[in-house]
DUF1611 domain-containing protein
Amino acid sequence: MPHAVPALRETEALPQPYLLFLGDVTEPGYAKTAFGLRDWAGERCVGEYACTGATVSTGLPFLSPAQARMLGARSMVIGVANPGGRIPSTWVAPLLEALQAGLDLIGGMHARLADIEPLRNAAVVHGRRLIDVREPPPGLPVASGRKRSGRRLLTVGTDCALGKKYTALSLARAFAARGVDADFRATGQTGILIAGAGVPMDAVVADFAAGAAETLSPDADPAHWDVIEGQGSLSHPAYAGVSLALLHGSQPDVVVVCHAHGRERVLGHPHYPLPSLEETIDLALRLGSRTNPEIRCAGVSLNTAALDAAAAREAIDATAARLGLPVADPVRGGEAFDRLVEACLA
């Protein structure tokens, strides 16, 4: 399991520890915010809470908001990233329960907590805060395309919810362990909650998205690395625009392509097949070369969570042999991951 990364000053301003709210989720891929916080900020999570009918669990203790408050929780975080970032009406009652128990609410959805009248009224009555982290900073520029100093790595994927954030966090930590000056740059609500800063790329007006990516990773020392969390997929029928803006604006020197072993259809869009790793690498390099002609692919991050250790090794070795590139599962680590790290820094 990954170790927690240090919280930045901005994160400390959020009310914590957290109770993780899983809504009525039955698809683990949509609970990635909860899993991300469990794995990378576990010391800040006291438990989980969910609606009747939810089948996904982080493995943390199931606590009511009142129980969590007694154990020191100060807020309930919506740990779901569903299509469209909706807050269904069925969630309102448990969200109200959290406010009534003395917890603030933290949301990372496109839907704003303060736009829901019962929550807004209850927050006033109980003296609680409604905090939305999926709020881009003001004054974002249109992209300039100017080459910036420093080094950059971007994780790109064959689909959503398959390990781009975990890969970026793991690589940033591995770089630091080797004495490399590196920062993790968050581009989604979960990464922002973990790191304490970032830009929620999918909440930025389209014309300013590449400019937001430029702002996220400014000029730096030539030896410094920004390890940038990828979003979506360049081949995704709904989210490719966010991915392309991030690719152009971040101007990565290196990309690491992320894939979930065995996944064949686009999550939430099963009538679309996933592109192959070869297609994804080629597309990322062709499109990325527009703003960085020196872009290269260092290797592949293969999510083997559904496999046992022996099957995972076999899948990693077979994919590496096919592609002629380092392949590793960052969560499993080991020599394969060391080879991927060295290829990134080469």
Observations:
- The radius of gyration is 20 Å.
- Residues 96 and 119 are 6 Å apart (CA to CA).
- Confidence is low (pLDDT under 50) at residues 1-12.
